[in-house]
Amino acid sequence: MPRTPASWPAIRRWALRIALGLLVFYGLYLLAANIFINSRLDEQAVNRKPEKFQMHWDGGHSWWFGHVRLHGVRIQGQVRRLAWNVQAEEVSGHVAIWPLLKKEVRVPLIEPEQASGGAHHVTRELPVPTPRDGGWVLRFEHIVSHSLRTGS
């Protein structure tokens, strides 16, 4: 009969602790992400300059790190004299986690469903802000919709 090394119980204990730690970490992520998405804290964080950019949604969820699905999304903004808006029944996307540590919001893929939107000129021009150090960088790399409703 083969003998097991005396360290096997210790290895199993450590493996169980690591697995339990990862499970607790994942559970905390799910709790924090879904509370953030479904409370109004997130909209307050996103809509810091409502005259330039606003995003509202009815609800959503995140089941995996960085992957987010939102329902009833309404986005609007203005750049100089151009005002724009987009609505979608559902939007799924992925937010890269590591770049957040370097003050960069990088979204490699956004997929809106049943999207509509448009842009129009307005009389009030928003001035171009002066560049300054310490700001966040926003990168939206790929936006794809296979169910575009209307546009103007």
List the total number of helices.
2
* Low-confidence sequence ranges: none
Percent helix, as a range, is 10-25%
Radius of gyration: 22 Å
Percentage beta strand: 35-45%
Structural class estimated from helices and strands: alpha/beta
Number of strands: 8
Q: Quote the distance from N terminus to C terminus.
A: 78 Å
The helix/strand series, from N terminus to C terminus, equals: HHEEEEEEEE
Structural notes for this entry:
The protein has 152 residues and is of the alpha/beta class. The chain is 24% helix and 40% strand. It has 2 helices and 8 strands; from the N terminus they run ααββββββββ. The strands form 2 sheets. Strands 1, 2, 3, 4, 6 and 8 form a 6-stranded mixed sheet that branches. The protein has a two-stranded parallel sheet with strand order 5-7. A hairpin with a 2-residue loop joins β3 and β4.
Q: In short, what is this structure?
A:
The protein has 152 residues and is of the alpha/beta class. The chain has helices at 8-38, 41-46; strands at residues 53-56, 59-64, 67-79, 82-94, 104-107, 109-121, 137-140, 148-151. The radius of gyration is 22 Å and the shape is elongated.
